[in-house]
Design brief:
mainly beta; 1 helix; globular; binds 2-acetamido-2-deoxy-beta-D-glucopyranose; Cycloisomerase_2
Length: 368
């Protein structure tokens, strides 16, 4: 009996390393990197896949982990995931409609609910339904017009994937759409942000579905909203949280990214630095079960200024572990909060372009 009880433990101690995989996007190049983490040696390694696209800035995974979607200047594309470290030739792409002078495919989001639609934002006040259940972009059902003066940026869905929240970077608003059974969107309303000039970008819904966080790039703060259970609209809680220390000059930074840890207990957020040679920050907040913020638990420098990214991706296999991508030098690092300290535990350099914000590393998505 004792032998039986012990054997799984012995087996797990003797087992070989577990490998975890992510894909990492790039700026202004054709590459997508597969990054592997060996949780025994704590080594991160990378391999490159080429795509025919010019840019693979934001990435998303399909619900079944079989398709990688990317967005960037040229619109949106899909690629089959042929192994945990390789992608195949593009299965489709959806060029932007052409009328967006500034930025075409800003962001991409893949729904986890049938029919598994994919949504992309544009700088010209539209969100484009760019996806199809088969995992190919380019068969979208059309565009959703928000407001002619808007610049739609970040998106997230509630845990049931029935409501879509989108930030308007230009006017400071947060839009709520009902996601219909066929994947189409119906606008419910937009709510004002804390300020029309706060420049909201990343939007994150807490796994409880009760709180929503908005990263205000222009103010270097995070704004807290409660999601009304009846209307599903976010209500601003009059609560802002600093993403740079009070001793720093906010104008030297740009708030970028936020993610919630696997178990929903910690919120991580970053700023990148606009001043050469100065690092950005990574800040952590302790959360209640409903996602309300209890307090700030850490605020430390990131390895570089972060460039255009300093973006976070929460690990699906370990609570309180995140991947941080930065494009100043080009690297991916893993960070862990152990309830006392936050530490970088692994890092891989991917200096592919030799110039800041060209090439690696824009955003990471974890496969497993
Ligand atoms: C990617 O493209 C570069 C430059 O064209 C080439 O040197 C490299 O071998 C390609 N890599 C793969 C994995 O196809
Ligand atoms: C779009 O938003 C702007 C600024 O908030 C507002 O002035 C304008 O009336 C809106 N347009 C429409 C069609 O709602
Ligand atoms: C949610 O919205 C409804 C309808 O506007 C309102 O009656 C209710 O008080 C709101 N709930 C909360 C908790 O604010």
């Amino acid at each position: 009996m004792l032998q039986l009880l012990l054997s799984p433990l012995v087996w797990s101690l003797g087992a070989s390393a577990t490998l975890h995989h992510m894909f990492v996007g790039t700026y202004g190049g054709s590459g997508v990197y597969a990054v592997t983490y060996d949780d025994t040696t704590r080594a991160l390694t990378s391999t490159k896949s080429n795509t025919t696209r010019e840019d693979n800035e934001w990435l998303a995974l399909s619900y079944d982990g079989k398709t990688l979607y990317s967005s960037g200047l040229a619109g949106w594309s899909s690629f089959p995931i042929t192994s945990p470290t390789t992608i195949g030739a593009s299965t489709g792409s959806s060029p932007s409609p052409g009328q967006c002078a500034i930025w075409q495919g800003i962001f991409i989001l893949a729904s986890r609910r049938a029919p598994y639609s994919v949504y992309g934002t544009l700088s010209c006040a539209r969100s484009k339904d760019v996806g199809a259940p088969a995992g190919q972009v380019g068969r979208g059902k059309g565009e959703v017009v928000y407001n002619e003066t808007a610049v739609m940026y970040g998106m997230d869905m509630d845990p049931s994937n029935q409501y879509l929240y989108t930030s308007d970077f230009k006017s400071g608003k947060i839009w709520t759409h009902k996601v219909n059974k066929d994947g189409s969107l119906t606008a419910l309303a937009s709510v004002e942000g804390p300020s029309p000039v706060g420049a909201p970008r990343t939007v994150v819904v807490h796994p409880s579905g009760k709180s929503l966080y908005v990263v205000l790039e222009g103010w270097n703060v995070l704004a807290l909203y409660a999601i009304n259970a009846t209307t599903h609209l976010p209500e601003y809680m009059d609560a802002l949280f600093n993403l740079v220390p009070p001793t720093e000059t906010p104008a030297n930074y740009a708030a970028h990214s936020a993610v919630v840890s696997t178990k929903g207990s910690v919120l991580w957020a970053t700023t990148s630095s606009k001043v050469g040679g100065k690092p950005g920050f990574i800040t952590g907040f302790r959360l209640q079960e409903d996602g309300q913020i209890i307090d700030q638990i850490f605020q430390v420098n990131t390895p570089t200024g972060g460039g255009k990214s300093n973006n976070l991706a929460a690990s699906p296999f370990a609570d309180n572990m995140v991947a941080l991508t930065e494009s100043e030098r080009g690297s991916v690092s893993l960070w862990r909060y152990d309830n006392v300290n936050v530490k970088q535990i692994a890092s891989v350099q991917i200096h592919d372009a030799g110039a800041p914000n060209k090439g690696c590393c824009s955003e990471a998505v974890w496969l497993d």
